[in-house]
Amino acid sequence: MTRKAIVGSLLAWGVLLFLVLANAGGEKDKPVLPSGPHVSCGDCHTCSTPTAEAPCLRRCPRFSRAIVAHSPEEGPSVVILDQLSDLYVPVIFPHKLHAEMAGMAEGCAACHHHSPAGHIPPCRECHGGPSNPENLSQPSLKGAYHRQCMNCHREWSHDTECSVCHARRTAEARIPEITDTTDIMGLLHPNIEEPDKRIYQTDYNGGTVVTFHHKEHIHLFGLGCVDCHHEESCERCHTTEERPVRVKTIEEHHKPCSSCHDMDRCGDCHAKEETAGFTHARTGWPLSRHHQSLDCRACHPARRKIGKLDRDCDACHSDWTTDTFKHAVTGLILDEMHGEMDCADCHVGRKFDQKPSCANCHDDGREYPESSPGKKG
Amino acid sequence: MAINRRGFLKVVSAIGASSLVGGQKKALAVEDFSGYPDRYGILTDLTLCIGRNCRKCEAACNKENKLPPPKVPLEDNSVFDSIRRTDAQNYTVVNRFPNPEPGGPPVYVKHQCRHCDEPACASACLVSAFRKTPEGPVVYNKKICIGCRYCMTACPFYVPAYEYDNPFSPGVRKCTMCYESRTSKGRVPACMEACPLQVMTFGKRSELIELARKKITDHPDRYINHIYGEHEVGGTSWLYISGVPFEKLGFPTDLGTKPYPELTRGFLSMISAVLVIGPVLLGGLYMSTRRRGEVDADEETIPEQEEDQP
Fold first, then answer.
1. Looking at beta carbons, which residues of chain B come within 8 Å of A85?
2. How many domains does chain B have?
3. Contact flag A154-B105 (C-beta cutoff 8 Å)
4. Fold agreement between A72-164 and A198-278
């Protein structure tokens, strides 16, 4: 074999290898084509002879209804619909819950109609943006979402209130916490607008009106929905029919409150007229500047009824020492000498709420605040 | 030139016949008009409308046409307790009708101008203040309106409303399919854009009818086989499909398929002929009878002269 022949054959092999590799790379970039006996050319192409330059592809090919057989667990648990959220905050759509309900009827295809085999597109993939003048039968994304939801919601809950799914976007509205979707009735559920307060009329002679400050219990006392609503049925909200009034015993009536409140002080809840919300001053101890910003549970131990606490400062603040407490937060920066002294040297018996005494060291009768152990900061 | 009676009658009958034939031809030409070919329309799918707690179409219409704030707030569902009509402050209203099937959900019907292909209001108008545009909407020109309100009497859907509370420059008010601000510029009407369920589809009327047929064919369990407005009063631009027979939903179903203008067209086309032939015929008859009288008088006087001569 001559040298020329060797170079020639090497070159040929090289070219061949390149072609094979290039082809392999090309394969990877190619879209996954739908296959199977049910797919015909017309499903994807509008013309009879599509070419690379003019593939005449349909915007969203409508395959025959896919038989999608996935278990609810395979799909996403919660889907946040935020494509159209200018007026309202994003919608929390409990996908898994709906997948479970759809299992009783048509399955996934109840919503995911016209899905190609092997791929379940989200709504927005076909119903993108405003309505498509090329295809009048394809509703816009807004139309598609609402039709899909209302189709069942009208029939099952008779409820077409926007707030069933939407929370209005206002300046103070919180974007719902996406991480914890279980704290609504202990189920996956779209956000519910909580009432501000409820006023109950009772037949108790000592005071017929009971004002329940609902929002306060959530935002001030930090209760979750399930803390009270733990035995709710869907029907409680999702029905238009009058529910038969069940006669409850006195204990049953008071149960939602009695799990936290003592039942022996009727006047705390029952009044002649509507009562104002909670203020700490009502307990006989108006909160000072620093205490006001605290959560209830910062002082009142967690997982216990909120009750009277020892008013002695040291009961909570036993950890305050010269090293740990920065005296400047009180508005008085201690001078070098006083800064090293023990708290109790001035605050006799660690009674921080009372006037400090200078008599432990100074016997000239000086008094605070006329003579100051530092300067105002 | 002497006009004898036979000759005169010949001429008169020839004129009459020619004007009659002419009138007939004209009328036929109008009947053949099957509407502007590319006119738009709106298909309303009544199975989708949720009505209660919504009325977003009414809100959008109110805002688009800068109408006064509604007397009953849009959030108030008590409006559904009675059947409302369109008026000068509400170009569109949504009404609730009970479902004839026991337990079925109530049916909500959005009512507004149907934008007839051959509008009765335009035909009744003395000054042509109403006009069917090639795009489909029937629009109104307040500048030339004389306030006779014949349009209100003529409309088979009781749509045009008069501004009775406007003493100085009252006009007729109705839905214009947002012609000025939207549809003439290729945008969809405000009510359609606002509808959360896209109950309405805006498009070429011919394509909408195809779409409606397809929906009915694909879901015979969901729809009744009737596209309201396809043929009613000669066809309207606003079309409806429904799951409940239209007569149960306040739709007049006794309007026939003839365009309303056609009911008077035959009679009105005769008027020109009557105006032309009438005077000529009667005048001619008068002249011929008068001439005969003169001749008779002449004949009577001649023998007298003969008697005098001898």
1. none
2. 1
3. yes
4. yes
| B105–A contact, CB cutoff 8 A | yes
Residue of B nearest to A149 (CA): B197
Provide the CATH number for the domain formed by A72-164 in this structure: 3.90.10.10
Residue B3 domain flag:
no
Q: How high is the pLDDT of residue A285? A: 84
Q: Which amino acid is at A129?
A: G
Between A124-138, A141-155, A158-172, B283-297, the lowest mean confidence (pLDDT) is in A158-172
A325 contact partners, CB below 8 Å, separation of at least 6: A343
Q: Is residue B213 part of a domain?
A: yes
Contact (CB, 8 A) for B41 and B241 = no
Q: How far is CA A341 from CA A129, A333, A353, A373, A375, in A?
A: 71, 13, 18, 11, 16
Q: Which one has a higher pLDDT value, B169 or A76?
A: B169
Mean per-residue pLDDT for A326-342?
A: 87
Say which of A137, A142, A147 has its CB closest to residue B211. Answer: A137
| A166 close to A86: Cβ distance less than 8 angstroms | no
Q: How far is A163 from chain B (nearest CA, A)?
A: 10
* A256 burial type by CB count under 10 A (0-12 exposed, 13-18 middle, 19+ buried): middle
pLDDT tens digits along A91-110 = 878 787 788 777 666 777 77
How is residue A324 written in tokens? 């740990």
pLDDT for the residue B30? 47
Question: Looking at CA atoms only, how far is residue A160 from chain B in angstroms?
Answer: 6
Cβ A78 vs Cβ A96: under 8 Å? yes
B275 or A75: which leads in pLDDT: B275
Residue B250 resides in a domain = yes
CB-based contacts of A126, cutoff 8 Å, min separation 6: A59, A60, A114, A138
- Is any Cβ of chain A less than 8 angstroms from the Cβ of B198? yes
For residue B190, the enclosing domain spans: 40-262
Report the chain B residue with the minimal C-alpha distance to residue A139.
Answer: B198
Q: How far apart are CA A351 and CA B207, in angstroms?
A: 86
ipTM of predicted complex: 0.71
pLDDT of residue B33: 60
- Protein fold of A198-278: Cytochrome C3 (3.90.10)
User: What CATH number corresponds to the domain at position B242?
Assistant: 3.30.70.20
Q: Between the CA of residue B57 and those of B53, B197, B221, B293, what are the distances in Å?
A: 12, 11, 27, 76
Specify burial of residue B291 (Cβ count, 10 A radius: 0-12, 13-18, 19+). Answer: middle
Q: Which residue has the higher pLDDT, A102 or A188?
A: A102
Specify the pLDDT at position A121.
Answer: 78
Residue A255's pLDDT is 85
Q: Does residue B2 lie within any of the structural domains?
A: no
Q: Which of A147, A161, A162 sits opposite B197 (nearest CB)?
A: A147
Which residues of B fall within a CB distance of 8 Å from A156?
Answer: none
Enumerate the residues of chain A whose CB falls inside 8 A of the CB of residue B202.
131
- Element (H or E) spanning B130, and its range? strand B130-132
